[in-house]
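Sample pair:
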Amino acid sequence: MQFFVRPGEDERWFEYWREQRMAWQTALVRDAAKLRWHQHGPGELAHYAKAAYDIEFEFPFGWQEFEGIHNRTDFDLSRHQQASGKKLEYFDQERNERYLPYVIETSLGADRLALVVLCDAYDEDTIEGEARVVLRFRPEIAPIKAAVLPLVKKEGMPDIARRIYDDLRTRFTMFYDDGGSIGRRYRRQDEAGTPFAITVDGQTIQDGSVTVRHRDTLVQDRVAAANLGSYLAERVAT
């Protein structure tokens, strides 16, 4: 992104975008302590830059940069102006003045950001004596928001589960799974980073409620199937 500013106001906007970019990155990860600033010193600073900072993440293989914020002054437009022979000045009607804008640039690698999110989310723990691999994505960025799982393939549970799945998938990215034991299905969703698993069981047939299992805490809530939409919306948007 290149953000054009009035000369003399570049330092204020540079600090504004530093704050905004770090806040955005912090909202994506679980542990903000794994993010830090690296300021470019005189030996690193590009010839066109007045100031530059990198946002670094502590990967398993060490600290690495994945986004940069730079004050490029008027280098870009002045070079374009020089090469084209055409003026690229901006006329500010309120101030009644012309100037060549300065550029505040933010540069983010999409592949590196994906690696940041995956490394931050990856975790291993033990559940009932069994090793578990889990991706602890924040619910708002989890690729799959919830899975619907009938406890068994009988007693009408798959039909109810399918109806719940078809209703919720119009609002959320959902997954339906009825293959294998319920424990194995939970593990598969943990590995995919799905924050909520909705299980249709015997009690569902009796009172219309389902079990909602939380990926990170393993807490299980009993929720009326009719209220699942609002229940997920509140937690996905946290």
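The chain is about 30% helix and 30% strand.
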